[in-house]
Amino acid sequence: MLYSLYELGHMSVAPLRIAALMQSTMLRSPMNPLGGTEAGRTAAAAADLFESMTRRYRKPDWQLPTTTINGAEVAVTPKSVWSSPWANMIHFERNAAALKQARGDRADPSVLIVAPMSGHYATLLRDTVNAFLPDHEVYITDWADARTVPVIAGRFDLNDYIDHVMGMLRALGPQTHVVAVCQPGPAVVAAVSLMADEDDPCTPATMTIMGSPIDARKSPTAPNLLAEKRDIDWFKQNMIHTVPALYPGAFRRVYPGFVQLASFMGMNLSRHVDAHNSYFQNLVKGDGDSAEKHREFYDEYLAVMDLSEEFYIQTLIEVFQEYRLPNGTMTHRGRKVDPGKITKTALLTVEGENDDISGIGQTQAAHDICANIPEQMRRDYIQPGVGHYGVFSGRRFRTEIYPRVREFVRNFHSNASRGVRKLRVVGEQ
């Protein structure tokens, strides 16, 4: 019912949003004598603010047309090279001729960045991808919005998520490096544990875990405390809703992105109110640069996706309520997940000093549970002065965190030639 009411609200306000957009355009026209007056600028700013607050934000584009290598621009083309109904693996393919001219015949390590499936699209990691591009063959998990997946495609839970990570790593082959950002950390550790237990040749050479709830009992944050405070029935009753008939995934039970967005914005409401007030004032003053930065941030932040009910509930139980991975009780399709089996994959953990989503120690816990990784293959780093998003984006990520990750990958990368692999789409024979 809530999802239908949400959609009805969007449709009801659409005429007003269109009118506000027309008003803003008209008032900003150089032919309009009112455009240069304070009253005109104020009216245009108000119309612009209304339009931005009532807009339906779609999945953003990657907006990574090039990367710079040794001072030369190299064209980049995002391509899906592996897919299922629930995910694509995107390869940021660098132009081969320009790449060779820029840095010769050097073979760069392949890195799979596992993006969160937690309400925002993988494009939230645009800055992460951009940092990796000059020195790596970059791949990323691009998870599907659950409301776009028809019910006939079946369920998708944490076990399926782990299967997808293993499938992508096997498609990429030996000497791949995996980077888990935030929510995927426990799933990636589980996937690597299972592959190591099988002595799979595609077990990644390194595993980098950034700002992740490996053990959510350590330095619990507001989201952790909420998960502990409420029983699972409360979450099912209040957070799970049915996709309306407007979408391909009609009648699928989901945790809607707009519900999660409302929860996170509610925790920092004053900050968002101040940001929109500043946006309004900048529009009135004609400060286009500041207004554009605001739009860029909120175009990404307000673009949300739905999660399947079974993935959301299983993650809540296993990661945030029963702590099965650090407790040693996690299973995957009836098989015990034992991080102690990991012996040949190097481990780097990265945390932000001011992280208010994954507190200090939650990511470091990976070293405790991956007890049999040799000491010389371990690294741990805490970045001063950054919060959760600063762990994988922003200036300090680019200048202080990423160089450490790049060095770590290079230190444990074999230069053996891997050749070119044709990646198989899930479902192909």
Overview of the molecule:
With 429 residues, the chain is of the alpha/beta class. Helix content is 43%, strand content 17%. The strands form 3 sheets. Strands 1-2-3-5-4-6-7-13-14 form a 9-stranded mixed beta sheet, with helices on both faces. Strands 8-9-10 form a 3-stranded antiparallel beta sheet. Strand 11 and strand 12 (335-336) form a beta hairpin. The chain is globular and about 70 Å long. 40% of the residues are buried.
In CATH's first tier, which class of the largest domain applies? Alpha Beta
Strand content: 15-25%
Strand order of the biggest β-sheet: 1-2-3-5-4-6-7-13-14
Please provide the count of β strands. Answer: 14
- The CATH fourth-level homologous superfamily of the largest domain: Alpha/Beta hydrolase fold, catalytic domain
Report the oligomer. single chain
Uncertain residue segments: 416-422, 424-429
Examine the secondary-structure arrangement and name the CATH architecture of the largest domain.
3-Layer(aba) Sandwich
Query: Mean of residue pLDDT?
Result: 89
Q: How many domains, in number, for the residues?
A: 2
Q: Tally the helices.
A: 15
Separation of the first and last Cα atoms: 41 Å
Query: What kind of sheet is the major sheet?
Result: 9 strands, mixed
The portion of residues assigned to helices is: 40-55%
Shape: globular
Main attributes of the structure:
Rossmann fold; 14 strands; alpha/beta; 429 residues; 9-stranded mixed beta sheet; 43% helix; 3-stranded antiparallel beta sheet; single chain
